[in-house]
Specification:
The protein has a four-stranded antiparallel beta sheet with strand order 1-2-3-4, with helices on one face. The longest helix has 17 residues. The protein has about 90 residues and is an alpha+beta fold. It has one domain. The relative contact order is 0.17. Strand 1 and strand 2 form a beta hairpin.
Length: about 90
């Protein structure tokens, strides 16, 4: 019985983990701007980009900014900041 409860709880928790990076919605990939465009946007904002990846329907940028490692989440269609490590929102 405990095993069934554990599986049920895991199934409920998984969607929350999958979208933990931010709520970018479920936008068709045909509308997304390129990874290169996100990298250029981040660099224009002062980030030294180390990695750009897709995470939870968003672009996640790992970079250095003001001497600190940061992870910032960008909307894949608009290129606006959805969330960063400091809890800041859209730019």
């Amino acid at each position: 019985m405990n095993k069934i409860i554990a599986i049920a709880l895991a199934a409920i928790a998984f969607p929350a983990v999958a979208n933990a990076t931010g709520d970018c919605g479920n936008k068709p990939h045909g509308q997304w701007i390129s990874k290169a465009a996100i990298q250029a946007k981040a660099e224009a904002l002062g980030y030294q980009v180390r990695q750009v990846k897709i995470e939870g329907g968003c672009y996640e940028v790992k970079a250095i900014k003001n001497g600190a490692k940061v992870e910032t989440v960008f909307d894949p269609v608009t290129g606006k900041i959805v969330r960063d490590e400091n809890g800041e929102g859209a730019n």
